[in-house]
Amino acid sequence: MKKVYLDNAATTPIRQEVIDEMVQVMQSEYGNPSSTHSIGRSAKAVIETSRKTIAKYLHCNAQEIVFTSNATEATNWILRSAVKDFGVKRIITSRVEHHATLYTVLALQEEFSVEVDYVNVSHEGILDYKQLEELLSDETKTIVSLMHVNNETGVINDIQRIGTLAHQNKALFHCDTVQSIGKIELDLQQLPIDFLVASAHKFHGPKGVGFAFVRRNLVLQPMLFGGEQEKGWRAGTESVHQIAGMAKGLELSFENLTEEQKGITELKSYCVTKLQEAFPEVKINGANTFYNILNVLLPFAAEKTAMILFNLDMKGIAVSRGSACQSGSIKPSHVLAEMLTEEELKKPSLRISFSHYNTKEDIDYFVEVLKEI
Ligand code: PLP
Q1: Ligand 1: nearest atom to the Cα of 210
Q2: To 10 degrees, what angle do helices 16-28 and 240-255 make?
Q3: Which of 76, 159, 165, 207 could be a cystine partner for 201, CB 3.0 to 4.6 Å?
Q4: 71 CA distance to ligand 1 centroid (A)?
């Protein structure tokens, strides 16, 4: 059966060059990076070269990159440490963040009675910057945790503006850049960000590895206790091949950025046109959206909502929905629930997310199948 993968915001296929790099590292760099002999030192060198590669593309210092097992781990660590070690008494976030942030914030609220304020978003998913500014005028020691690109709608937050507002008000800024890392230039020399997090599997790298950027002079406490790895912040023998694969994935993303950005942008606009031709009343969820994510509300009967993903899957199409189906009932996505009306939430919304591996034929097939549903 034909397979069409349009779920690249969930995860991306690994590039062949990344696989080759990882195999080579697994075969040759089997030493423990903490060992002092040459075989260990060679593995250590792979880690440090990877760190430098990542830092180079993000325009930061290699010492500011901390390897983790994924973005979720990095976010848990940073927010927890901000509350425990920096004396943060309040977290400002939004209800459309990924659960990695939202549930961490809730846990910290429960455990440390930290105050939590949520910045509203509009019907189109746009953050209320005025409200953010007002919230920040309060003197309470604060960390702002707001994402760059929303993983469900693709709505882009103005992180320059958020960071500037945060810093003007002496607040810290943690940014979930999982959906944008490797897909757009980010210059950490310029951006007023204190912490950011990323996962390699979102930029055609391996799963189970990610990193945090922690700005120089911000000293966190360890997330794991044990050895001296990662400055003692994250003890445990490093996954050398994963780290090397992540650096290779990021390098290739940046080396091909202009060309792939162009191709994906064209593909998204082709998809919008095709959907509008087939379903003139289709509506795009969110404004100012990122070039690889398209979230659409289909003008279908509400009864079709529960089975739509299943029906697409039966035809080999992988997309995801803005709603999660739980035991036959439809629970709207927490992101769309903040943006759409009750009536709109009953209808099927789909998240279609692209990569450079997609083609116009994929889109044609997807739209043809949708028409039959
Ligand atoms: N943040 C965003 C915006 C995401 O899209 C994801 C993954 O879907 C995460 C955080 C969590 O990433 P991971 O599961 O790799 O830790």
Answers
A1: 15
A2: 150
A3: 207
A4: 6
Domains delineated in the chain: 4-13+257-372 (3.90.1150.10), 16-255 (3.40.640.10)
First to last CA, the chain: 18
319-350 residue pLDDT tens: 997 654 444 456 789 999 999 999 999 999 99
Average pLDDT over residues 65-71: 98
Q: Is the CB of 179 under 6 A from ligand 1?
A: yes
- The greatest distance separating any two alpha carbons of the chain, rounded to the nearest whole angstrom, comes to 67
Q: Could you tell me if the CB of 353 is within 6 A of ligand 1?
A: no
Close Cβ partners of 235 (under 8 Å, ≥ 6 residues apart): 222, 224, 225, 226, 227, 228, 229
CA angle 331, 77, 90 (to 5 degrees): 75
pLDDT bin (cut points 50, 70, 90) of residue 1 is confident
**CB-based contact 33:40 (threshold 8 Å):** yes
147 lines ligand 1 (CB under 6 A): yes
| Any ligand 1 atom below 6 A from CB of 191 | no
CA of 11 from ligand 1 middle (Å) equals: 9
Sheet bearing 115-119, strands edge to edge: 65-68, 210-214, 195-199, 172-176, 142-145, 90-94, 115-119
Ligand 1 centre from 174 Cα, in Å? 14
Q: The whole model's pTM is what?
A: 0.97
Contact 282, 297 (CB under 8 A): yes
Which of 133, 136, 151, 163 shows the shortest CA–CA distance to 97?
151
Residue closest via CA to ligand 1's atom 14 equals 72
pLDDT of residue 321: 79
